[in-house]
Amino acid sequence: MDRATAIEDGQRDWLASPVECGRAAGLGLYVHVPFCAHRCGYCDFATWADRGHLVDRYVAALHRDLARQAAEHDGRRLTSVFVGGGTPTLLPAADLAGVLARIATEFDVEDGAEVTVECNPENASVEYFGALAAAGCTRVSMGAQSFVPEVLATLERGHGPQRPAQAVAQAREAGIAEINLDLIYGTPGESSADWDASLRGALEAGTDHVSAYALTVHDNTAFGRRVAQGLMADVDEDVQADRFEVAGEVLSAAGFEHYEVSNWARTAALRSDHNVLYWRHGDYLAVGVGAHGHDDGHRWWGHRSIERWLADVEAGRSGVAGEEHLDREERAEERLLMGLRLREGLHWSDVPPLTGEALQDVVDCGLVATSCGRLQCTDRGWFLLDEAVRRLT
Question: What is the pLDDT of residue 27?
């Protein structure tokens, strides 16, 4: 284990001299739009379906906070932008395009930077996507979730099974270069045939990228309360593991690269740059309600209350609700948890100090492999990532 010995001896500084991670990963910008037409029963994000009267104030506050943060940050170029929610495309097209234009005006954005906007299929149109493309959007991420009517009904989605493919075609017509479809698996009542149908639907829609997530039921959601009251079956982790395996088989057979635990892309060039930034422990600015930011181990987050965030920003304050500074051990654990989610894992120069014994243990358990100057999870290790990191640290 020569590599382990080198890491244990501390011959490199994984924080100060990164190769792919940390500051070397780039600088992103996340903008949160908290409005939704309906709050789905599984959602635990900072979103509301009854705050439409605040849209104009919120958009104005986004402009104000973008200007403030551009003036205060250290001048590094943005390598990616992600507008998430909520449902950003509930904003009038001119308003959302205006936010994208403001970003381009206030910040130094790298040429060819990925600019992603989340949307729901039912909010899509060629005209809307055209306005986004004209404002610099290069990628859209659609919440399809399923292509089966009964599963969509359980998930409380507002579109039918044909709508995601129609929305993909509209985005293509409008000139959006890259398109992702989100899928959820393991919904109570979903059958194996249902999951096969959703995977086929995503492939037939002609998307470039698929994100597939196991349904998580949080206690503070409507689903969580129903499960606690015995009104809804809880998720079955064994079933979800089977669904995950099927997704890998089907998407890989269709030519997709399984490059991250929950993500597949047709080519390496069609990966999500912004999400890779997260997984490589990079830095990102945060604008909007509940948005999280990170800079070299300093993490902060905005108020989850729209009204409180608005009051702060309109008064010239940051809207930040809290912050924390991670110590070296916390950053080491986070580096491993994030970096090992990627298929290629971590470059040795970006791996925090490990003991030879710990590394030998996870290799012997079949959780991690070392090859070509990298530390990588095995397929089994992806299923047991928390355990792999626990053993390494």
Answer: 97
